[in-house]
Hints:
Blueprint (H helix, E strand, L loop, with lengths): L7 H14 L7 E4 L3 H15 L5 E4 L2 H9 L13 E6 L3 E2 L5 E2 L6 H10 E9 L12 E5 L4 H10 L3 E4 L1 E2 L2 E2 L7 E6 L6 H9 L4 E4 L1 E2 L5 E6 L2 E6 L6
Parallel strand pairs: 1-2, 1-3, 3-6, 6-14
Antiparallel strand pairs: 4-5, 5-13, 7-11, 7-12, 8-11, 9-10, 14-15
Helix pairs in contact: 1-2
Bound molecules: ribose-5-phosphate.
Amino acid sequence: MAAATLNNRNLAKQLAAQEAVKLxxxxxxxxxxxxxxxxxALMALAERLKEGLQxxxxxxxxxxxxxxxxxxxxxxxxxxxxxxDISIDGADEFNEELQLIKGGGGALFREKIVASLSKNRVVxxxxxxxxxxxxxxxxxxxxxxxxxxxxxxxxxALGGQAQLRYxxxxxxxxxxxxYIADVxxxxxxxxxxxAIQLNQIEGVLAHGLFIGLATKVIMAxxxxxxVFEQSQKGS
Length: 235
Ligand SMILES: O=C[C@H](O)[C@H](O)[C@H](O)COP(=O)(O)O
């Protein structure tokens, strides 16, 4: 994509992604995130491959797998990888504790596996993603269809208002053949506690609260890059 055709927000996403890709070292196994910002990272990685960098990527979605293949990035299947050196992924929201909401694109389960396997978990965002408190973005939750009614009732019992996600007038189906519910819990006072509660619901495959799954957030603003790291307010 030519820089001249990018709007400011996309330029910010691209800048953050390019900065993250500088952290990738030769022979790394790289977790490939999903979404518009992660896609800029794929493109930057492909540029580095042309310059001689050797890596193998692990895709976090079928969409990312297709994009990576089209860019000539060698891939390893997620289910066979024991450890990932660095993952680069986007987020829908993050706070200064580096807690995230992810799953706007529906890829949260595989993204969570990629992040869990990764030594370094780098999140790339534009400044619209930074919040004081998580929750303006509804929490995406992937659920097994046969448990749908039960799971939706459990969200309600936790104070959440859930809507099943649709795409083109049909229920959205994930890469794992499940549904996504977008659950409005309002601003979330205690993301760790809510994450545990959601994990306890039978029929929930994964939820979009990523707690302790980011080591660094690279955020591009109009003025440049801001880097947030664990136990740091930003630099
Ligand atoms: O399921 C999608 C992912 O969690 C994305 O990483 C997230 O939605 C952010 O996407 P984008 O970079 O397009 O805003």
